Amino acid sequence: MSKQENGIIRSKNPIRLAVAAAALAMGGLSAPVLAGGKVAIDDTKWLSVGAGFRAQYDSVEDGANGGEDRSNEFTMSNMRLYLSGQLHEMIKFTFNTEKLDGEDIEVLDAVAQFELSPAFNIWVGRMLTPADRIEMSGPFYALSWNQYRQPLYASDQGGEAGRIGRDEGITLWGSMGKFQYAIGAFDGLEGGANQSDELLYAGRFAYNFLNKEDNPGYYTSSTYYGSLGNIFTLGASFQSQSDGVGSEGEAGDFTGYTLDLLSETVLDGGGVVTVEAEYKDFDADYTLATTPTSGDCFCLFDGDSWFATAAYLFPAEVGPGKFQPYVRFVENNPSDADSSDATEFGLNYVISGHNARLNINFVDGDANASGYAGADVNSFTVGVQVQL
Predict the structure, then answer these.
(1) Alpha-carbon span 275 to 268, nearest angstrom
(2) Is residue 331 predicted with pLDDT exceeding 60?
(3) Are the beta carbons of 331 and 309 closer than 8 angstroms?
(4) Which residue, 32, 122, 329, 334, has most beta carbons within 10 Å?
């Protein structure tokens, strides 16, 4: 979901404007005045279009020639098109797409949004399942570039229980003062171990002790680059599904919870200190290390994990942007296998917040998104992110 609104166009011909906005969203027009902005149809109806792009170059130790040479690869990590609108002052919608591996473009979000009051809103469709901050921030609103080296919830496991952190279901969310909440029910794992068609239940609760975080809906960000002043937020999230792991013949249950923290302090000289940390605990009856004796397994991580990231945004502009060095450490401790860890040293060059930044990072270790140890290698990445 784009958080940037660059312009508003008003016209007495809403059909023509709607067609223009849809065409732009599909990449058929080049009209900078519309990009990333609103098309106002009347006082209560509007359309907004935008796009997001992330690409990177990776060089991985022992990643080529059967593990004898460093690999060198350019990758388009994300290519997203955003379309959202308002039909009534209390009814909105979101439709976003994502280019996945190969040439496939799939629906990322498709949400009907009934936004009744700040304290109570209902979203229905395909959307982010309430989860920990790094999964709710996603790649575009992250602090570090390679943040997915912890075990991830079911909807981030490739498609059997949702995809890219999204799933079909319903979420109730809102805020009361500095308290924010989101709770929902989703399909979760379908088929396989879940022959009884049990639902996945998820929730996230956060309290803003200082300034309140400002995001669309119940989404999060992992840094605001000092734009919201001083922030100190604690969050707790959970997900649970009976028959959520295992195989058709041997079903098991899954429960996970997370505690996360975000602290951002704007210093007198204009520099910004950001600290992000998280503790995650998963309880899965079947895991990648302890699989059922028969049948294909949808297996998750069992154990605990934690990470901490510290960053400093220099106040002085160098060219069009500011430098933000950071360091991140993550450790995964499965109950049925050896522990793993990874350290990331990175440098963001922040040109326009989350809408334009460059990144260089070096990662060393064997931690990855499964939670179980992979190859203990180092990697070097150069990334670019642009979003309207």
Answers:
(1) 18
(2) yes
(3) no
(4) 334
